């Protein structure tokens, strides 16, 4: 990653899974990485320790990205230590109801939509002024193929992520003249994540059907998704904005 040394990257939801893999990869490529977490301080500190053991720089910061005051406090903490955030990877998974439309209540769907969009809105608002002032920034939002290809009982997640993707495109259009790129990484099923461990919803038979539907013959690993994120975060990747990278092994092609 050309010239990445010294850039500050904030990765939300980075104590495990895709977020942890992304934090480690960005640090390996020369960025100073903020490992945001909600509850698991031990896991976040383990990610930081791994980065530091490999010669990188990282710090763990607790914040609920659904709360504006918590986000602002986190950004201030980062600014005091390292300066302004240059790269935002918004990865935090907001809880959602897993059920059919028939069984879902409006409150359940509304709560997911509201929390998903409020988190993205608030964390973007918090980092944007500094990016605009310096005329450089990278905003990367983590989505899912479910935003385009429905799957049973995933209406809350898929609908919320579809809204997030369109939000990102509008932000990309507005911020392009300010030197800020905005892109989406839409992951297919990913091993070793919180969703993958929802065995009451996704049993082994379901997993095997997903693998059979994937031309590359396996599900994604967090590192696969992290590679796409790091591509968008790169200093020299300056002419891609408003795009979506589908990391799904060919399960869906668009």
UniProtKB/TrEMBL annotation:
Tell me which UniProt keywords the record has, alphabetically: Oxidoreductase
Please, which domain of life does this record's source organism belong to?
Bacteria
**InterPro entries cross-referenced by the UniProt entry:** NAD(P)-bd_dom_sf, SDR, SDR_fam
Which Pfam families does the UniProt entry name for this protein? Answer: adh_short_C2 (PF13561)
Q: Which SUPFAM superfamilies is this protein grouped with?
A: NAD(P)-binding Rossmann-fold domains (SSF51735)
Gene3D superfamilies listed in its UniProt record: NAD(P)-binding Rossmann-like Domain (3.40.50.720)
- Answer yes or no on keyword Lyase: no
Q: Look up keyword Lyase and say if it applies.
A: no
Q: GO molecular-function annotation terms?
A: oxidoreductase activity
EC numbers listed for it are 1.1.1.-
Family per record: Belongs to the short-chain dehydrogenases/reductases (SDR) family.
Protein name, entry field: SDR family NAD(P)-dependent oxidoreductase
